[in-house]
Each structure stands twice: as structure tokens, then as C-alpha cells.
Queue: 2 jobs
Job 1
Amino acid sequence: MASQRVRSSLLKFRGNISRRTYFTIFIGALTLLGGVWFLVSSVATVPQEFFPSPERVASTGVKMLQSREFLEDILASAARIGFAFLISALLAIPIGLLMSSFKFVEAMVEPLVDFIRYVPVPALIPIFIIWGGIGEESKFLVLFFGTFFQLVLLIMDDANNVPQLHFDLARTLGASTPQLIRDVLVPYLLPQTYDRLRVTLGWCWTYLIIAELIAVERGIGHTIKEAQRFSAADQMFVCFIVLGIIGLVTDYAAKLAHSRLFPYAVKSAR
Amino acid sequence: MSLQVSVEEKSFRNKEDLSNVLSDVSFMVRPSSIIGVFGPSGCGKSTLLRIIAGLDTNYRGSVKLNGKPVTHPTRNIGLTVQAHISYDWLTVAGNITFGLRYAPERNGTNWFNRVTGKVESKNATEEAKRLASIVGLSTADLKKYPEEMSGGMKQRMAFARALLPRPEVLLLDEPFSSLDFESRQALQDVVLRVRDELGISFICVSHDPEEVLYLADEVFVLGGSPAKIVNRTNPDLPVVDKRYTQEFQLAKKELSQWLNQLKQLSTEKDRSPLDSPLAK
């Protein structure tokens, strides 16, 4: 009876499932993936250098995580992302809000943003190297260009979708234009902006690897490149898994914090 | 208090076409009075309220409050609308006292409070409790978030929020139309009580004949294309249980006939509403 109920709730369109069922399925999917990996690596005749087994990746992973160097690589990558993403968000949020609030700002900024947005970031790497050399500056530019121009438009679109009546009613209560931005626009957008930041932070990790292909001495991208030189696929797999875990943990932590920070947004979404 | 409304022409540009929405709509609002503006949906009632509120200044004519032209929204003319607009990040108490941060007397507070919009919590709590009791919300409701409230409760909250600056005129745009019968009647009685106790005047826009007849001292029927006042009635009805009197029912029947007539005319645009047999 209970299993029948679980089965019907699984197939219900946009239906809810219990937290326990959710995590059972989640762990099951991971186990299945690991099982397929184990089977393929043990049955196939592919050399371990190209397609390492889970045991080999696990033992390499333990060794790498015990070394100070790999931890420094992770920290170097995280620091690059942290700095570039912070600057990108600090500029994109106010500019996006101003673009939505004042048509002249939109007219000034949007064509430029749209133009640059469609130029693939990897195509810009040579010019970033000319401008910023092979130091941290060029990596910063890759990460910044990869996120800023997307984020600014997302913020503007979200701001444009705030119902006009919210502003009209505040104006009849005496709000001036700066007060409308401070008291209506910003708090209305906070939960959505938080979500936008969470998603674009994921993109930032994608651009990180591209950024770290430019001569670097530290970083996860650098470790992957070095592993390629020595055909050490097991080391690459460890890097992929670490990247995935960092993404998963930050995303889940951000989701958890979202419901604490914006309880009203959770209630509205129900 | 005196509010003089005179909208000679209001039109909207739709691509190449210029459509005239309102024409020659003039009336006067006296202190502590309730004006009912009645007409079919989409006839321009809400546009008229936006003009009076100072939210739309792109029209020919004038709106004068105490002799001064209304050129922008002011705390002296409040507004509540049909959609339950709430500032969801604030509690009900925060919603009700939302306008407190813009009170002119706050100019004397310190710069930090002015920059952040922070209000004295003791003052805000007292105001929230006072207004909540007027509109029939409990102290426990004040701690809730708007999403936890029913439509009727949200509308009470919106009404309390509009009352906070003690406006001289409060504009009600189909305020109770989405509510159930009991909530609607209860809120209509709140409007009458606020008028009597605080001396606020109201302009109530509605397509519900019973609502305007119950609330208003004077009812304007708005209709046609462009919309103009096609009938003015002064329902001098007994106050106690007036909904159940014969005069009330007759007046309601007449307004309903107007509504049907105007709806019919909007589909036959070539006929003028002034040709209506009811207008003669």
C-alpha cells in the first residue's frame, strides 16, 4: 500500500516527494553511476592510463588530498573565483537595477552588453593576454567577462518584472525615486538575485578552467593540464570529482541558506 | 478638504492609433463624502483613479486638492487596488506601517534612519496595532507574513496601509470585488466607519451596483467611448440596514440596467450612450 503511494507520488506531475525518498533516489543514482564506471573499467580492455578504475581514482585522490600542493591548487582556484565573482556581482547588480529604473541607462548599456555577450569568452583570451599579460589579470578578465555580462541582463530582466503597482502604491505613501529603489525594488529582488548569483557562480567555475589554461602555477585547471602532459587520467578524474563536489556542496549550502534568509519567498513559492 | 476633478480628455497611443478613453469627466468631492464611480469593466474607471492619484499626469484637464493642482502622487490621496498588493518581505505589521518611513515628521530623525528608512519600532508597533484594530485584524495577525493571510485579510492589511498617512481622500479601485460576500460586507462597513470616525473622503470605483449604492453618497455612471459621466444619482437611502429596503433594491435594479445597456453599447460602438432611453 505504502509502496503504491510512493510510486503514484513519483509519477505525479510536479508532485512532492518526501525528503527521505529524495535522498534515497539521489544516493541510488550515484551508486548506479559508480557501478557502471566500475563495470566498464573492469570489463573493457581500455588501459588504466586512459580510463582509470574507481579504486585507482580513489587511491590517487587520497594521495593528492594528503599533499599540500593540491589543497593549495583548490584554494588558488577558489580565491580566483571569489575575487572575480565578487567584483562582477558588485558591478552587475547596481548596473542591472539602474538599467531597469532609468531608460537612458538601459539605452547606454544594453547594446554594449548584448554585443559583448555574444563574443565567446575563449575567443577573447589572446586580447586579455595582451592587456593583462599572463599573470592574474588575464584570468580575472576571463572570469569577469564570463559572468558580468550575463548577470547584468538577468538582474535587469528580473527588475523589469516587478509589478508596477508595487511602486505606484509606495509613491502614494510618499516614496521618492531613490526610496522606491531602496524599499521596493531591492527587497523584492533579493531572493531572485540570490538565486541568479548561485547559478552564475556555477558558470564561473566553468570559465575558471578556461582561465587556468593560460600559464598558471597554481589552480585546479593547472593540475588538469599537468595531468594531461603525463597522461595521468586518474589525477584528472580526481580534479573532476573535486570540482563536482565543490559545486554540489556550495549549491546545496546556498539553497539551504535561501530558505533561512528569505522565508517569505519559500512560502510564496508553495 | 475639497477635491475638484476635471478630466477634459485622456487618450492612449496604441501604435499608430490614438484612442480616447475619457472625455469631460468632472465632479467635486466634499469632505467626509463617498463618491461611487460605476461602470462596466474596461470603461476607464481605473485610469480615472490613476489620474486623481497623480500617477498619470498625461491628460488634458486638472485635479485640484484644496485648490492646488495634483501633479504627482501625494500622501494626501491614498490608493487601494483590487489586486492584493503586499510587500511580501515584510510582516503584516511592516506592510501596514510601510508609509511611516516617508512621514514628513521623520526629517528630524538621525541621518542613519533617514538613509536606511528605519523607523522607531515602538512607534511602528503602536501604529500597526491601532490601524489593525480599525480594519479588524488581530494583534497575532501582525506577526504573520502576507502569504499566510487570506485574500480578505490581505485586503484589510492594504486598507490599513493606505490609512496610515491619514489621507484626505482615499481611492478604492474595485477594492472588494475578489472577496467572498461576508468579507466584502465587513470591509464595506469598515469604510463607512472610517469615513465617520476619521472624516476621510472616498472615491470608490466598482462594477458592483450593490457596493456603490451601499457606500456612496453620490454615484456617477461612467460609460461610452470615450467614457463620460452618463448619469449621476444621489441615492438618499436610509442608513440602517439599507441593503434590505425597497428603495435600495430599486436603485440597484436601475444601476444594473445601466450596466447592461453600457455593455451592449460597447459592442455597438456607433451608438452614443446618451441615446440610451435610461438617459432621457
Job 2
Amino acid sequence: MLELRAVRAGYGSFQALFDVSLEVRQGEAVGVIGPNGAGKTTLMRVVSGMIRPTAGSITMESVDLVATPAHRIVELGMAHVPESRRLFAAMTVEENLKMGGFIAAARPKFRQRLDFVYELFPRLRERRRQRAGSMSGGEQQMCAIGRALMSEPRLLLLDEPSAGLAPVIVEMVFDLVKRIRAGGVTVLIVEQNVQQVLRVVDRAYLLKAGSIRASGSAAELLATDTIREAYLGV
Amino acid sequence: MAVFDIYLLEALINGVLLGGVLALLSLGLNLIFGVIDVVWICYAELIMLGMYAIYFLDVVYHLPLLVAGAVCIVGVALLGVLLHVLVISPLLGAAPINQLLATGGVLFFLQSAATVMFGVEFKNLGLRLPVLKLSGMFISYSRLLAFAFALVGMVLVYLFLTRTYTGTAIRAISQDRQIMMLMGVDSRRIYLITSALGGGLAGLAACLLVLQYDIHPFVGLSFGPITFLICVLGSLGNFVGGFVAAFVFAEIIALGGLYSDLEWGYVLAFAFFIVMMFIRPQGLMARRS
Amino acid sequence: MTRVLPWLVGAALVALPFVYREPYPLHILVIILIWSFAYTSWSVMGRFGLTSLGHGGFMGVGAYVTALLWNKAGMSPWLGVPLALAAAALLAAVVAYPCFRFRITGHYFALVTLALSGIVLQVITATRDYTGGSLGYTPERYRGGSSLYALQFASKTTWYLIALGVWAAGLWVWYRVDRSMLRYALEAIAEDEDAAAATGVHVTAEKLKITVLSAVMTALAGSLYCQYQMFISPDTVSGISVSLQMVFAVVVGGIYVAYGPTVGAVITIMLAEILRISFGTRAVGWDNLVYGILLVIFIVFLPKGILGSLLDLRRPRRAEAVPGT
């Protein structure tokens, strides 16, 4: 569904990604793990169009994403839940969700999608008129994921969903990701928390210092020392 | 003593009426700043052009006033878009002071263009609207009308910002610009719409001001600086802050005018502003730097 | 050769009025020198990112206080000018202190100063019984217009030399600031106020110092203008137009360079004169119109001004800094 080939990207003269190639097949849940500063967020941003790659190709179901204007990528069926949530703090939960359903295709189905999201996250329904910025970290994460789901995406990008959350909440978030995935949405997660993400995904890539060092099924990666070496250097 | 109170009450009421129009002005300025993060120093000059437009349409071409007003609102909205495309857009990445100076250049240009095209003599619509007499107070009908329309304008903008998708996007973009594309929002389109909205509000303000004041190329200097002070006092980009500050300033100007010349009212307002900065800086701290 | 050049040019400038006595060109030169001094005064703080759009207010204070003290109180400008400078310093301190103390910077500060110059204009207009309002004000001539006591001189040559001296003094101040610790403190502040404060820089005090200095110099320009022209009006010495004009001239000339404001003055004044000669009274408004367009064009395409950009071309490009991830 999503394919990256030899992608290079960075910020100004600083290069963050070096010839990254990966693919996500329809219906899969794929993870990208790696230590801090590996370039995981850069990877997400280059896929969703927030930044442009300096080389390489990114295609989603044969549509060239690099040639697509950033704000039209959502229309193709991809939604990105950014790092640290990035909610519109001064607006209510429901207004945030409304923004998620901004694209023309999503507007006629607003009520329907809203009910779907509230069913998935009953807490959000309770807090629908509350200022998004005043909620707890876990609730904000739910709101952010809910916002992304409003456009009925077929591919969901999650950038470090566990960041800044208590372990109990992290567990809950990943359970929800499982449910979303079970509903037929393809998922690409970028994560530092190896244990949690490998619970949920089929395959994963190991990203370190901007390059893919290893890949394989979740089970394989859990079994080998590759990950430990990458994170701890031992 | 009773007579004295009546004058005071009259001034207070006039202050409220003036506040309505000033609130409209600061709404336009705050919108542009909140969304695009630029201050249109030439905002008052856009209003000045709108006033001239109404004058020519009504007095010279004899169009009915309502039509002239509508044309003015649309016209200045288009001017706003033009301003954004020609001047602001190329400077979106530049230092904020450069953006400010560029709109300063437009201010120069518009004032001079008006001087060259229309001359410096004062013009007036020549409307003689009745003055209402309410229990000993004289309230000018044109002021009431201006206030009413200003309120209507603000309510419409409020509804637009809260009920429509585009309006919600406008509010959202002022909070987090970078992720707007993730929701399928084209930032450039939002900027254009906001510029049109800001310009349209200026056009509306022109309709209201032309009922009461003379038209000349430098009329913008009478309320431009005050509008900036209002917006800074209420925190640039903060709609509610600007709204409140507008009425506070209007009352000060009205009360100052009660006791002496109108200009002293402005001086008093500025002095008040300085004092406020000493006393309540929190009210002035921008939420965005 | 480069060491001798400034002295040669300086000597030539001083000798000029004795060699070339045409009054009209001398008049233009005096005007250019006075405004160059005013623009340089603005750039003393403008170069550090403290963009004031209110210097018209300080110039107006300098001009009107000097003239009023002379006409109403019979006070010689030798006393009047220092008082005017003190008034400007006070005004600058009162407005700038709360701004700096409470971190009102950048375009907020610009807006506040913009309002300041507008208010000064309003005050001048409101006190029309004393100041003549928009009709302008004339300091009274003393003993035929040539007197050291009244600081009035009929001879253009004298004025030229005075203006030259003040202009040179302005540049000297610019250089002194450039070489002082104040400059480094302000540049640090301009880049990152919090970091500067963390290293012990008294942010508010430093900013206040440069603002008062700049205001006082600008007020001096105003007083000088008043004594030379013997006629002042609110729009020529104060108000938003003057403030913007100052910024425009410095932007065009080059804001980070000592002679930039002077170049800007030459360009703007020559432009105004050319328009005036070509169009006569029909030129009213056209000069500002051209300024307006040019200001926009310069900001978009040449933000460093003419001199600044030319100097930039001579310097090799620095390597780009590495941004954060």
C-alpha cells in the first residue's frame, strides 16, 4: 500500500534519513523502532508531506506522494497522528474532531464518524465540550487518534503514541491500536517503546541514525540481540 | 448637578457606541494577526479608501447608499486579498519587522495615492441623520446605526468562525500552523479567505464611519493608532481581549472628550495605555511571541 | 590610502561652502545633513532589532519644545535645546521602560511607538492655541536672524558647517556604540533575550540606554531643523509619516552600516527635490507615493538596503548553520 524507496530527507543542510526503503502492505500493522534521534519523526513527516524528501520515491497505491501537495494527501486516505499529539488546545474536543473531518469527502459522514470515534473512546464523548488542552495526556492521545480517524483513513500513521504517557495508559493506547487495526485500517507506527509496539505489529523495521539496520517479523526481532545492540550499544 | 449627570451619561453612552465600531476594527486586525501572524499597519488606510469609494458611489454616481455600502465591502475585501498576494505573501518567511515595514510602505502609498487622486480637502456624505433626544440626552442616530451594524457584523463573524468548517480552520490555524495540512487544509487558501474577511470588515467599518466623519486622505490617522493600542492591550490575536479593550478605550476617549477637546481624549487613552502596561502587564503579554 | 581617504573627503566637505557658494545646493546639503543625522540616530537602535516607528514623536518634541521655550519664555536655545533633549529622554524612558520590562518587543514595540508618534501629533494639534496646530509654528527672529545667542544664522555657510559637524558627531556616536560592550549586549539580546539575561546582561537597562540615546539624538535633529528652517509644522517634523520616512530611508540605505542612513537620506531627499522640480505643486503626494512603492519593493527584494547589499556582495558567504532536528 505504502512504499518508500531510497528516501533521503533532512532539514536544511542537516540530513536525517539516508536511503530509507520500506513498505507497508494493505491490512498490515508495521512498526519502525529505534533509539532517540534516529529520524523516526522525520520519517513520518516525509510520508505525510510535512517535509519533502531530497531524493527517493514515496508512493501510496501507485500514487506518487512526493508530487502531491501536502494538504491533498489526506484525501488519498492517509491520516497522520503527529508526535506529541498537537491538538488545538484552545478548541473543544468536538471541534478538534471536526477539524479531523475537514476534507470534503468526510463532511457528509460527520455524524457517523463522530459516533464511531465516541464509541471507540467513550471518555471523549464525556469531554466533548471540554477544552482539549485541559485534558490528561492519555485523553489527549485518544483525541488525537480520534481526530485522525474522522477522515476515515485507510492508512493510519502514528508517531510515538506512547510519548509522555504512564505505562497503564500506554497499554490502553496500544490495545486501541489493535482494535483499529482489526477494523481494517492499515497502520504504520513509529515508536521508542519496543515491547509495546512489537505486541501490536506484524513486522517492524529498525531505524538508527537515519538508516534501516534490520527488519523482520515482530517475533524475530524480539528474539534477536539486534535491537538491544541498537538501543544500548552492547 | 442633575444636568452634569446627564452629560456624563450621554458621554458614557456615546462611548459604548464608539466602542462598537472600534471593536469591529480591532476584530479585523486581530483576525489577520491571529491567522497570518502579520499586522496590517495600513488597515486604517484600507478603511479610508472604502470611505472614498462610498462617497464617490453615492454622491457622484448617485447609487443608493446601501448598494454603495455593499460594493464598498466587497471592494475592500478584494483589496485585502490583493494586499496579501502582492505584499504579505512574498514576505511570509521574513522577519516580522519587515512585514510590518512593508505594510508601512503600503500605508504611505495609499495615503499619497488618495492625496493625488482626491486632493486634501475634506469631503462629506452630507447626510443629516436625525438626532434622538432621550430624557435630555442627545444621541445621534448615525452613531446608533453604526453601533447596530457593527454588532451585527461581529455576530456574523462569530457564527462564521464557530459554525463553518472554514471558520473553524481559521481558528485552528492560529493555534498550530504546521499540522493544518494533515487535516487537508490548504493554508494559503485560508490566508486568502482571512485577508478577504479582514478587508471586508474594513469595508464595513468604512460604511459605518462615513456616516459620522469627514473623509480625507489622512483620516486613517485618527483611529489607526488607537486600534493598534487596543489590540496590543487586549493581546494581539485575542478576539475577546480586543473586544473588551475597545470599549474601555472608547469610554476613555468619550469621557476625555467630555471635559475638553477630542484630541485630549486620545492623549488620555495613550496615557492610560502606558499606565496599564505598568500595572497589568499580564493583560498585555502576547500568547505568541 | 584607505586611512588617508576619510581625511581627504572630510577636508573637501569642510572646504566646500567656501569654494562653491550657490545658496540652493548648499540648502539641499544642509537638509541632507540634518536628516542624515536624524536617520543615523534612528539606526543607532534600529540596527539591534529595536524598530521604533515613533521617532517622529521625538523629533517633534525636539523641534517644538525648543521653539516654544524661545517664543513663550524667551529662553535661549542654548538652554532650550538641552531641555528639549531632556523632554525627549523622559518621553522615551516612560514609554520604553514598561515595554522592555514586560517584554513587549518586535512588532508589538513597533506598534506602541507608532501610536506614540501619532499621539505626539495629536498633542501638538490639540494645543493649537500655543503651537499653531496644523498651521505650523515660527520661532521669532532675533536681531535680524543672525545671532549666536539665539542660535539663528542667516548664512548658509554657517549652517552647513554646523550641520556637517552634527552629522559627523552622529557618525562618531554610531562608531562608539559599534565598538562598545553595549553593542554586543544588544546583539545578544536581539538574538535571544533569555539567553542574554542568563549570562548576566541587564536586558531592560541596556535597551533603555540605547533607546534614550537614539531619542535624544533624534530630538537634537528636530531642534536643529527648527532653528534652520525657522518654521515647523506637525507633519514635517513629527507624526507617523516622518517615522515611516525615517525607517524607509534607513532600509533603503542600509541599516547595519554606518553610512547607510546617509545614503538613504541622499536618495530620499534628492528624489523629493527632483519630483518637486519636475511637477511643481502637482508633486504633492507623489513623493510619498513613490516612497511607499519603493519601501515595499526594497523590503521584499533588498531588505539590507542598497549599501548593505553592496557590501554583502564583497564579503564571502558564510557556511549555513546546522538547524536542530
